[in-house]
Structure formats: structure tokens, C-alpha cells
Amino acid sequence: MTTMSRRSLLALGGAAALTAGGSALLAGCAPQAPSTRKGAGASAEADGLPAFFAAPEPIADVKETRDYDVVVIGAGAAGVPAALSAFEAGARVALLQKEPTAISQGNTCDSILADETGKAGIEAVVSLITADSGHRSNREQVRLWAYRSGEALRWLWDVAEKAGATVVDSTAKWTSAIRNVDGHDVSYFAFDFGPKPYNTGDGMRAIADYAQRQGVDVFYSTPARQLVSDDSGAVVGVIAKAESGYVRFNAAKGVIVATGDYENDDDMMAFYEPDMANIYRKEQNKTGDGHKMMVWAGARMEDVPGSKVLHDFDAGPGSMADMPFLCVRNDGTRFCNEARSEMAVMGNFLRSAEDAGWYTQVFDSNYMTDCADWPGVLIPPEGLRNYMPEESGEKKGVYDSLINTFAADTIEELGRKLGITDIDAFVQTVRRYNEFAASGVDEQMGKAARWLKPIVQPPFYGIHRHIGLSTIIHGVNVNADMQVLNAQGQPIAGLYAIGNCAGNFFGSPDYPMTVPGLSLGRAHTQGYVVGRAVAQG
Predict the structure, then answer these.
(1) Long-range contacts of 402-406 (CB under 8 A, 24+ apart)
(2) Which residues pair with residue 169 across a beta bridge?
(3) Residue range 410-430, pLDDT digits in tens
(4) Which of 27, 118, 194, 318 has its CA 20 to 30 A from that of 436?
(5) Which helix (H) or strand (E) holds 57?
(6) Do residues 405 and 394 lie in contact, with contact meaning Cβ atoms separated by under 8 Å?
(7) pLDDT tops 50 at residue 221
(8) How many H-runs (helices) and E-runs (strands) does the chain carry?
(9) Percent of the residues in the chain that have a pLDDT greater than 90, as a whole number
């Protein structure tokens, strides 16, 4: 078995290593015959694992073998950058995708410009993310994003332009509230694949096509079925199902798994995320394939259930989504202290079959002056019309099918437009809220007086948001270098996980949106850094 020199991913980027004795980057072994290691074909329960992790028998009827340095499984926000980055570093690369095209979601990715930010500022952001993740983050993994993301996203922006993808600098839009963290100035770079309805999926498709033109071998409609391990347990390749039969893809330097989450696997969701039973899932065909293959190869899932990415940035302006307007359920009743309940956690209040993720932000026509000093960006009434399905005219930068903002001259009429099931309750909720605003004391939820703004001046507005599950960030245990770890916490040689099938970055049940675009920024960064590092190993 060959190994790389002992360099951390941070050190590979030219940044000083933050801790001594960091994980080594182990390269994949030379291809050898697959083995029937302990657990193959055995029951999952025998290893203390859920039944959906039962390992199948090793695939034997391989029709073809192909040799590569690096094999990437999954053509998404992490996998596409990983494949291109590895290729640019000199590797022979195969990118396997079970879909007929590259797949990704969302728009915004974010990074810290490490060359423009002091170390104390970078570490302050790392601490902020760790705290907002319930202190369950692997700090070294968060540091990988913090110190390398600026480099990675600048690279991705350049690649996107070469590939013909559409990108928009959104740094000011998304990072103005976190430019200073604990007294430290921080420089960011954020961009969107957009504007909407263009999204990251469109961008990844363009970049995957570009990578293919450069020389990456891309295999669409070729789902990976099993990892191949040698007698030592090192992962040395992948067996995938092509139209002609099973193909073995040998990986001399490593296999990078970037298959996304498991939100469309009902068994995994029922086991790990039962509270999501009544929340709709935005993705399709995300069935935990990579998780299962890695567990069969000896990996273990991180201990806590994954971070749920729950939001609705489309019903109304995303920049107003966390503003502490009055919020009501579909039955017209108030349900939270809005100043302490940002959109990322709203799904926790709305898990029932009756709520199913629906709620409404309510405010009046004085909002531009009453809320001028609130964090976020207020969109004036003429801009709100872009989110109103009742308004005629072209809608720009939105998904027409998802906009859901309404205006009315009375609270009763607004309630009917919003589909409120109990108009009398809604009227009473607004009346009582106005009493709190007048007195400056919220006896119902204890919201601070500065956030209590009366709803008295027509027209009245309601943004009817529908919280949905974008992804589950819950994966196998990895170290700071994104090497997959076995049950004993030791790296499995030749095996790496990035993106949403890799664990230990967030670690909390709710995805924190303190740093907007962190999920995609992390995925892009891991792809860029790990692809390059494995290729250079």
C-alpha cells in the first residue's frame, strides 16, 4: 500500500497547518482482487447496524474493467468540482452519476477570503458556526472550509465563466450582517448560480460538460453499486451498473464519494429523521446510496441525526425571511417568539400533519419605516409585487410557481387570500399583537419591544411560506482530511467522503443559516480541495 506524504488539506493549500499531527492523506492502493470482507452478505443487525445497512453479496459478474487514478461518485455540488480539480492536478478521472445528468439544488455559495481576513476573524467565524451547530462540529473540518473556501470559490467562479454558466456576485446581499464577528472584520466572497430560475444544478451541468471537454471521463446513467476493497480493507475501486452490465472502475489513488443525502429513502428517514414525516421533500432520488456503500466498506454514521436544511426563500423575498414579523399558522394563531425563531428552525414548530410546514409572516404598509433598522434587506412594495401571484406582468429572478405573497385592505380579506382556516382567530391574533405593540410588552411570547411593530395601516401584507426539506446533512464519520473512518475511528485507506454524505461538519439537528450559503460553499470547497489532494497523492 502506498501513502501520501503527511500533509493536511490545509497545508496543501499553502496555509499554515493549525494543529500538529493532523491526519495524513492516504492514497488508494494499487488495484487488487475484491474480497469478501467481514460483513459482506451478512445481516446488519449482527454488526449493530439498522437493517437498511445490510450488506449485499459482492458483485462477481463484472463485464469490463477500467483503470483510473481517481474515481468520483456523484455529479453534484461537491462531486463535479472534485472531478475537475483532480483532473487539473494531473489525475486520470472517472465521474460516475446514476442520473442522466448532473444534479444539484440551491443558488448561493459562500466563502471567507483568507488572504483579506486576519486569523482571529477566521477563527471567530469558525467558533460562530460551531456554536450555532450545538458545539458538535469537528472544528478542523470547519477550518478546512474557513481557510480554503476563498481559494476554492474564486476557482469555481473562473471555471463557471469558462463553462458558460451564469454567476452573480451576491457577497453584499448575503454577508452584510456578519462582516464583523466578535469584534473582528471578515471579508467574504459569495455568489449565486443565477439569478433564479437558474440555479446551482444548471451551473453544475455546465461545469460537468466543461470538465468532460477537458478530459474527465463522465459516465451518466451509471449508478455505483459497491466499493471494491483489497485484503487490507483499503478501497481500490468501484463497481457500477452500465447499460452493458457491471463495470469495475479501478482507482489507483482514491475513491471520492459525493452522492448527496438520503431524504428519499423512507427507511433511513424514519430511523434518523422521524420528525420530518409531514414536511415535504424538495429533492428526488436521493436514496443514501453512498452512505450504504461506505458502511458496507467499514464506515460508520456520525452519532447524531443530521442537520435539516429547512427553508422557503421563494414565497417572498429571502432577505426578509428572518425578519421578526408576526408569524401565524394556517389556523391564524401565533406560535413563536419571532425574534428568536429564524426560518431555519420554523420546521420544528410546524411538524404536524395539519401544519405541514406552512406559516405566514404578517406586516402592514408602514414596514419600510417601522423596520428600517432590522437586520436583513427590506424590499419596497413595488418589489414585493414580483412575489405576488395576483399581480400581472413579468416576474424576474423568481420561480413563478413558488411565489406566495399577498396584499389586502383588511385583515379578513388578507386571511382569505392566504387560505387561513379560521379568520376570526386570525383577526384576534392581530388585534392582540397590536395591543402588545402599543404597550411594548409581549405577554404571549416575550418578544423584545424593539421588534413589536403594529399592524394597523392598510394595505396589509402576508408572505405565506412553505417550509420544505432541501437536504439532510448527515453522513459517515470523516477526519479533517475528509478520509472516511471505520468503526474504530481509523481512516479507511483510499476512501473519501465530501458534501452531504460526509458527517461531522454541523452535527446539530438544525442547519444554521448564520453564514448564508455555507452548505454549498462547504460542498464546493471540499470538492476542490479533496479532488486536488487525492490526485497529488
Answers:
(1) 402/312, 402/314, 402/315, 403/314, 403/315, 403/316, 404/314, 404/315, 404/316, 404/463, 404/464, 404/465, 404/466, 405/315, 405/316, 405/461, 405/462, 405/463, 405/464, 406/461, 406/462, 406/464
(2) 191
(3) 999 999 999 999 999 999 999
(4) 318
(5) none
(6) no
(7) yes
(8) 13, 19
(9) 88
pLDDT band at 19 (very low <50, low <70, confident <90, very high): very low
Cell numbers describing residue 536: 497529488
Q: Are 143 and 125 in contact (CB under 8 A)?
A: no
DSSP H helices in 133-259: 139-163, 171-175, 200-214
Model confidence at 376, pLDDT cuts 50, 70, 90, reads: confident
Provide φ and ψ at 368, rounded to 5°.
-65, -30
| All three cell numbers of 329 | 399558522
Q: Which residues, at least 6 apart from 46, have a Cβ–Cβ distance to it below 8 Å?
A: none
Question: From the centroid of its chain, how far is CA 443?
Answer: 37
**Rounded to an integer, what distance in angstroms lies between the CA atom of residue 206 and that of residue 532?**
20
Own/partner contacts of 9-16, CB < 8 Å, gap of 24 or more, are 9/144, 9/148, 9/480, 9/481, 9/482, 9/529, 9/530, 9/533, 10/143, 10/144, 10/147, 10/148, 10/480, 12/529, 12/532, 12/533, 12/536, 13/147, 13/148, 13/151, 13/529, 15/114, 15/147, 15/148
Q: pLDDT-derived band of residue 32, with 50, 70 and 90 as boundaries?
A: very low
Please spell the DSSP secondary structure of 77-109, one letter per residue: TTHHHHHHHHHHTT--EEEE-SSSS-----SEE
Q: How does the average pLDDT of the chain come out, rounded?
A: 92
d(CA 300, CA 289): 14
How many C-beta atoms lie closer than 10 Å to residue 57's C-beta? 10
